[in-house]
Amino acid sequence: MLNNDHPVYNEADELKRRLQWVMFFRVIVASFFIGIAAITQLLTSDSYVTKKLVYIYILTGGVYLCTFIYVFCLPFIKSLKRFAFIQIFMDLLLVTFLVYVTGGISSIFSFMYSISIIAASILLYIFGGILTATFSSLFYTLLVVFQDSGLVAPMEKSSIVVSGYAGSPLYFPIIVNISAFYLVAFLSSFIAQQAKKSKMQLQEKQIDIENLEVLNENIIQSINSGLMTLDMTGKIITFNKAAEEITGLLHYQVYLKSIEEVFPGVNAVLSIYETRDGSKLQNPRFEKVFVRQDGKSLSLGFALSILRDKFDKELGMILSFQDLTRIKEMQEYIQRMDRLAAVGRLAAGIAHEIRNPLASISGSIQVLRKDLDLQEENRRLMDIIVRESNNLSHLISDFAQFVKPVKHEKEMVVLKDLVDDVLAMFQNSPEAKAIASIRQTIDTTTTVWTSPQLITQVLWNLIINAAHAVDSGRGTIVISAREMESGFQPPMDLQRFKDAADGGAGWLELKVEDNGKGIPETDIDKIFDPFFTTKDSGTGLGLSIVHKIIQELGGTIAASARPDQGTVFCMYLPLSNRA
Question: Which end of the chain is less crowded, N or C, counting CB atoms within 10 A of the terminal residue's CB?
Answer without folding.
Answer: N
